[in-house]
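Data deposition worksheet. Section B asks for the primary sequence of the deposited chain exactly as it was used as input, without tags or linkers unless they were present during the calculation. Section C holds the resulting structure in token form. Section D is free text for depositor observations; keep each observation to a single sentence. Incomplete worksheets are returned to the depositor.
Section A, Depositor: J.P.
Section B:
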Amino acid sequence: MQDEALLGAVIETVTAIADDQITPRFLNTARERKSDGSIVTQADRAASDALIAALPRLARHPVLSEEMPRPAQQAQWDAGGDGLWCIDPLDGTSNFANGLGQFAVSVALLRGGRPVLGVVHAPALRETFSARAGAGAWFNGQALPQRPAAARLRDAVAGVDFKRLAPSLAGRLALAPPYHSQRNHGSSALELAYTAAGRFDVYVHGSQKMWDYAAGALILVEAGGAICALDSDDFWAQEPWQRSVVAAASPALLAAWRDWLRSPPPS
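Section C:
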């Protein structure tokens, strides 16, 4: 299957699994704590199992899921050099468990460690963001972005996850922000997609796992946005399992945002 047709099939598959496994459990499922302290629900596990079964039928590659044990994730990564499905079956589980609609299914197809297809689907919001490498990005079938980026950093709406930033940087952002206003929706994949759409102008997150950024980063770049890490301009050269994320809806805005984040605190 060619990538254009494959993207459409992935969108259909993700939407169907979300309708079958996630939406019926919204406001109707118990939560548990994983060993790392994060929350998991039956919806996370059911969606993961369904995606692991369905995606190789579309393209025969290993599937790496957030819900797998770490040794199994490593085994899938090692086996997936020519193609790897990377999935977060329910990104924003705390939102889901508390009745908030900002949660999503995130699916990316990686080749050589980089995403070539990406889908972020928010079932409660009926919103689907998607992208294909070199071909553009879309929101519910319409080309992204939805609106132009702010011209100046001081006019920007920023997505900021304070709790994963160094305390000194988080303090600067809270007390003397360089932007106009700040939001945090609790779903990394959705927040990157929101930056791609122009709903956020800039975004920063101190530590994302592979399944957090894989689809959203592709959607952002294909929509004309730009991305780097807190300590490196080459986002894709970073250690793949966990990266900081600095993103913006335009390359010019990224440069101003990156420079501010990296600047030394005032003495």
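Section D:
DSSP finds eight helices and 14 strands in the chain.
The domain at 3-143 is CATH 3.30.540.10 (Fructose-1,6-Bisphosphatase; Chain A, domain 1).
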